[in-house]
Amino acid sequence: MSRKQGDYLAGLLDASDDDAPSPARARRSPLLERESALARVASGEVRQVTELRIDPARCRIWPGNGRVYSELTESRCRDLIDSLVAEGGQKVPAVVRRVRDDPAIEFEVLAGTRRHWSVSWLRANNYPDMLFVVQVADLDDEAAFRLADLENRARADLSDLERARNYKWALDAHYGGVQARMAERLRLSKGWLSKLLTMATLPDVVVSAFGDPNTITIRGGYELAARCNDDTLKTSVLREAARIAAEQQLKVTAGEALIDPAIVLRRLMAVDIARVGTRGESVLVTGANGKAAMTLQGRRGKVLTLRVDLGAGVDRAALIEGLCNAIDEQIE
């Protein structure tokens, strides 16, 4: 790593919260994408670094990393697999630490889970001599978590739900349940962290409704989780989620494409709203408390006049759903 790049990474670690990059911005940084695994070395937290080329079977995956190893597949790692073959091996080392509690395992992978999986897959599929390149570091659990998090922000293939659940685990494991402390240590805004932690509470049945959990975005996941935390809406959301999950399973069985995530989100956000019924019905959207949120005031030809009560406790998705139904009726 060049001095200029090392200074950049060291400066990033010392930046204030106001200057901290969001996960989306971090993903666009080539420095973070290729060298964030060395960030803690640049910061001085790593007391010893040794690079080795080893059999990946000598390693286990640290459970504190956000990536779910069991959900990695050839298709999810195809780009990395192709790169390893084209370049004749792994160019960017993973970060591991030594294991002292398991005589059958020597190292624990802190950052580089996908690299470990891909090298292991290649060794079992025509490339038995492919080796796993690692840097051995001396890190405690909290420092290991921050290292893995910094690297994962640079990688678009880590799903928002994986990151959210990883943060929820780390909140209690490393930060005593104090969100402000965690936000400061990770250089994240408190608002962004709060959304991720809320998203992590999504019930499993809601996640199943999407078919592929990797398609759930932070914005949609946060809004759905908030609905599931509302006792007046939770039952209806879970019921609709179970219905959609069953539909998704039928599509998988039939070999058909899954329901589009945007449609799934719209259906789940639209529960407990009154859709436009017979022509001329005046109330287009009602809240769970029965209060009219969107009312049709008039209709002249192709022109609709609507009244929206923003205090009715209905979110934007419900209002959009009601508007779409009103327009569909008019077109018919």
Helicity, in percent? 40-55%
User: How far is the N terminus from the C terminus?
Assistant: 64 Å
Mean pLDDT metric: 80
Give, in spatial order, the strands making up the sheet with the most strands: 1-5-3-4-2
Radius of gyration: 24 Å
Q: DSSP strand (E) fraction?
A: 5-15%
Low-confidence stretches: 1-34, 274-279
* Overall SS class: alpha/beta
Shape: elongated
**Domain module tally:** 3
Element-by-element helix/strand order: HHHHEEHEEHEHHHHHHHHEEEH
Give me the number of helical elements.
15
How many individual β-strands? Answer: 8
| Main sheet: strands, sense, barrel | 5 strands, mixed
Which helices and strands, and how do they pair?
Layout lengths: L2 H11 L9 H5 L2 H6 L3 H5 L5 E6 L4 E3 L16 H9 L7 E5 L8 E5 L1 H12 L7 E6 L3 H12 L7 H16 L3 H8 L3 H10 L4 H6 L8 H11 L5 H21 L6 H9 L13 E4 L5 E9 L2 E6 L7 H16 L1
Parallel strand pairs: 2-4, 3-5
Antiparallel strand pairs: 1-5, 3-4, 6-7, 7-8
Helix pairs in contact: 5-6, 7-8, 8-10, 10-12, 13-14
Could you explain how this protein is built, in words?
It is a single chain. The chain has a 5-stranded mixed β-sheet with strand order 1-5-3-4-2. The protein has a 3-stranded antiparallel β-sheet with strand order 6-7-8, covered by helices on one side. The radius of gyration is 24 Å and the shape is elongated. It has helices at 3-13, 23-27, 30-35, 39-43, 78-86, 113-124, 141-152, 160-175, 179-186, 190-199, 204-209, 218-228, 234-254, 261-269, 316-331, and strands spanning 49-54, 59-61, 94-98, 107-111, 132-137, 283-286, 292-300, 303-308. The protein folds into 3 domains: 3-199, no CATH class; 204-269, no CATH class; 283-331, no CATH class. Helices cover 47% and strands 13% of the residues. It has 332 residues and is α/β, with parallel strands linked by helices. Helix 5 crosses helix 6, helix 8 crosses helix 10 and helix 10 (190-199) crosses helix 12 (218-228). The model is unreliable at 1-34 and 274-279 (pLDDT under 50). The chain has 15 helices and 8 strands. Strand 7 (292-300) and strand 8 (303-308) form a beta hairpin.
